[in-house]
Amino acid sequence: MKQIKKKLDELGIQYTQHNHPQVHTCDDATLHCADISGIRSKNLFLRNQKGKKHFLVIIEAEKQANLKAIAEQVGENKLSFASENRLKKYLNVTPGSVSPFGLIFDIEKHVEVVISQSLLDAADQQFHPNDNTETLAVSTQDFRLFLDWTQNKITTMPF
What we know:
By secondary structure, the chain is an alpha/beta fold. It has a single domain, classed as YbaK protein. The chain is built from six helices and eight strands, in the order αβαββαβαβαββαβ.
């Protein structure tokens, strides 16, 4: 968490920190984060059938993720949720705390980001800093700056 805030500060990314009780689901977040500016998202960490490719899927919190459609979009036959060990290895997070800010730990750029275009069209975003007791609100412009800095492959798609 401190590493993420330090990196955001280094990049000149402005954020507002909001502390709240631990949240594990989008429904939990609705109870505690509804008054925070920015669009809330659902962050899913997926792997391909062979386990050789990994995807961080970022969509609006209220939308459903169609894994078959996502797989087709990224050129895979099948996607499934990655294990807790893979979450820790690639994003340094635990289940319930998945966030695009975990990409700072993906030094070798193994994770491809698949993001909803409508999220990128919104003015502001909300994400955990890899700790589900906090939410950071950032402008989408600054979030795009962060994504550019990561140099991970990014695919946008309508959900």
